[in-house]
Design goal:
heterodimer; A: mainly beta; 11 strands; about 0% helix; about 50% strand; B: about 110 residues; mainly beta; 6-stranded mixed beta sheet
């Protein structure tokens, strides 16, 4: 399967712990996006990368959050000192090319539960 | 700031019938794109249909079509001949920066 993949699919952690999520985009896509989706809501933009450069960060991305894409391929999203309010689905998407230039392809998401 | 509003939290339709999901948006941009995404339960989000704002013709993809009213900033999705597999959350979204609406949960009654 050559779609966007995310790991892990589910993560349960205790408040105060650090967690890291990984996203592998479609291989030829140079743009990668992170979103957060809480229950019953639409996804909210967090940040995006063009190749290895992080070009924009939302105000939702507090200083406890950090994202990297060191080689312009996979990306990681780390949350430090997790809080219960961080419980959400974290979605990754990569941007298509050619006829699909404006389409973002989404991964299955990582569901985070903070106890 | 751009906003996207879906005023119907839930909709239901009988199988084989037609349903229309509403979406309005607010922007001062003249060049943008609009999308409808489908998110089935526990499955990933997929693109249903997209519309370029500069195109007057409404987009169509098989049973899915849109009614794009640029002046009214309205972008509704019509699903014809509804099928059980159409049951999902549907999100309207706006670009350049992808902003999503709150979603509409669509139920298909057999």
């Amino acid at each position: 399967d050559t779609g966007v993949s995310q790991d892990p699919r589910h993560k349960i952690t205790k408040r105060g712990q650090n967690v890291t999520f990984r996203c592998d985009p479609i291989s030829e896509h140079n743009r990668l996006y992170w979103y957060r989706q809480t229950l019953g809501q639409g996804p909210e933009f967090l940040t995006y990368f063009q190749n290895e450069a992080q070009l924009e960060k939302s105000r939702l991305l507090s200083d406890r959050f950090s994202a990297e894409r060191p080689k312009g391929s996979f990306s990681t999203l780390e949350i430090q000192r997790t809080e219960q309010g961080d419980s959400a689905m974290y979605l990754c998407a990569s941007r298509g090319t050619g006829d699909s230039y404006n389409e973002q392809f989404f991964g299955p998401g990582t569901r985070l539960t903070v106890l | 700031a751009q906003t996207v509003t879906q005023s119907q939290p839930e909709m239901s339709v009988q199988e084989a019938e037609t349903v229309t999901l509403s979406c309005t948006y607010d922007t001062s941009e003249s060049d943008y794109y609009l999308f409808w995404y489908k998110q089935p339960p526990s499955r990933q989000m997929i693109l249903v249909i997209r519309q370029e704002a500069y195109k007057q013709q409404n987009a169509t993809e098989n049973r899915f079509s849109v009614n794009f009213q640029k002046a009214a900033k309205s972008f509704s999705l019509k699903i014809s001949d509804s099928q059980l597999g159409d049951a999902a959350m549907y999100f309207c979204a706006y670009r350049p920066k992808l902003v999503f609406g709150q979603g509409t949960r669509l139920t298909i009654n057999p």
